[in-house]
User: Which sequence fits this backbone?
């Protein structure tokens, strides 16, 4: 088998996708009576009531996230090495790394984490350090939903902790206006997805990279992190941990970032006026095209903050406030997006306006001049006829 044919994660069974939920969100803890997840027909034999068993209650809702996982996993292995060089040969190998990263000290460097996880001596002599690194990066990508890479802006370097990558991905960029200020209330009411599409002429695109939420590119694409099911599940785990460890915050998916993203979705899609109704219609279209997580149109968007203080902090948009203001600017000062808009924009300077006015004056005068000339010719001809008839 050539390295090109070796795709150990190219398909995902139902039982394996349950293993993913277990690795990320401890679902076995919620329903320890659930039968062994190696079978494919768990639902028919779990005796727990629906409200208690996440495998029954929430599993179907994870469609969008599981599709993302499949796409990410299918690309493994990323390098032209033989199958013996790889460290992931089945989904469970990847889930084990994810579960390890969740338990590991978030301040450990990547190199320290890898030393703790892997045997100093590889299980076979062709397993290479770079394959170990790639396996860790893939696990971190799925655990954090940040586009973690080996080099570049989102790199998780050997001497750096995952905590640093997460913190650097969400630099503070708060709203410049207090949330109770009338200017912000007016902006917030007009900041609907419907206005962004119709007035600002933006195209809404789903993104799987959480750090790109509400980013806008030069072509007018507005990226929205739509994995509401993923956010809700991370927040549930967080809430559970907080019961026994007050003040606990997940180091891999920051609680306040998750709550803030849900709140931005409420502003853009779930307002109660006519624009809000149109925005929800737009959202349902995005879901129907299989692009958006269906949960973004559900009650789960209203996942709650656990104190008034936390609510106030989230509503001040400490991370995405600047991007919301940039979107407001797009509505207030729409930029030319279509080819026609751009042409008009290019030709709307004062000189062009004067030229256009002169051109339209000439075009208006031409028919009058022509008809005047025609009547002169007719008069001359008639006069000549009269003269010759005399
Ligand atoms: Zn169960």
Assistant:
């Amino acid at each position: 088998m050539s390295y090109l044919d070796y795709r150990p994660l190219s398909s995902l069974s139902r039982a394996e996708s349950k293993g993913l939920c277990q690795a990320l969100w401890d679902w076995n803890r919620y329903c320890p009576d659930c039968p062994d997840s190696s079978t494919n027909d768990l639902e028919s034999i779990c005796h727990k009531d629906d409200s208690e068993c996440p495998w029954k209650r929430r599993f179907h809702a994870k469609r969008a996230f599981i599709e993302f996982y499949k796409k990410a996993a299918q690309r493994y292995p990323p390098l032209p090495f033989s199958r013996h060089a790889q460290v992931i040969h089945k989904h469970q190998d990847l889930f084990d790394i994810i579960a390890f990263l969740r338990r590991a000290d978030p301040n450990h460097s990547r190199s320290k984490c890898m030393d703790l996880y892997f045997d100093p001596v590889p299980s076979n002599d062709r397993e290479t350090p770079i394959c170990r690194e790639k396996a860790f990066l893939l696990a971190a990508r799925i655990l954090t939903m940040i586009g973690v890479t080996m080099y570049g802006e989102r790199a998780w370097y050997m001497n750096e902790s995952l905590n640093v990558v997460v913190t650097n991905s969400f630099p503070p960029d708060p709203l410049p206006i207090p949330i109770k200020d009338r200017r912000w209330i007016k902006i917030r009411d007009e900041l609907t997805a419907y206005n962004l599409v119709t007035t600002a002429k933006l195209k809404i695109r789903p993104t799987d990279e959480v750090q790109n939420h509400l980013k806008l590119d030069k072509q007018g694409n507005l990226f929205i992190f739509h994995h509401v099911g993923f956010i809700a599940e991370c927040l549930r785990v967080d809430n559970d941990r907080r019961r026994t460890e007050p003040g606990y915050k997940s180091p891999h998916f920051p609680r306040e970032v998750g709550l803030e993203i849900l709140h931005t979705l409420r502003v853009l899609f779930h307002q109660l006026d006519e624009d809000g109704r149109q925005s929800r219609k737009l959202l349902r279209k995005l879901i129907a095209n299989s692009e958006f997580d269906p949960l973004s149109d559900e009650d789960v968007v209203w996942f709650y903050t656990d104190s008034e203080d936390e609510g106030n902090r989230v509503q001040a948009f400490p991370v995405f406030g600047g991007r919301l203001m940039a979107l407001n600017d797009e509505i207030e000062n729409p930029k030319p997006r279509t080819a026609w808009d751009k042409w008009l924009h290019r030709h709307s300077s004062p000189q062009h306006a004067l030229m256009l006015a002169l051109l339209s004056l000439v075009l208006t005068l031409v028919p009058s001049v022509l008809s005047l000339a025609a009547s002169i010719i007719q008069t001359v001809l008639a006069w000549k006829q009269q003269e010759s008839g005399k």
Observations:
- The chain is about 55% helix and 5% strand.
- The pocket of zinc ion is lined by residues 31, 34, 46, 48, 53, 55 (CB under 6 Å).
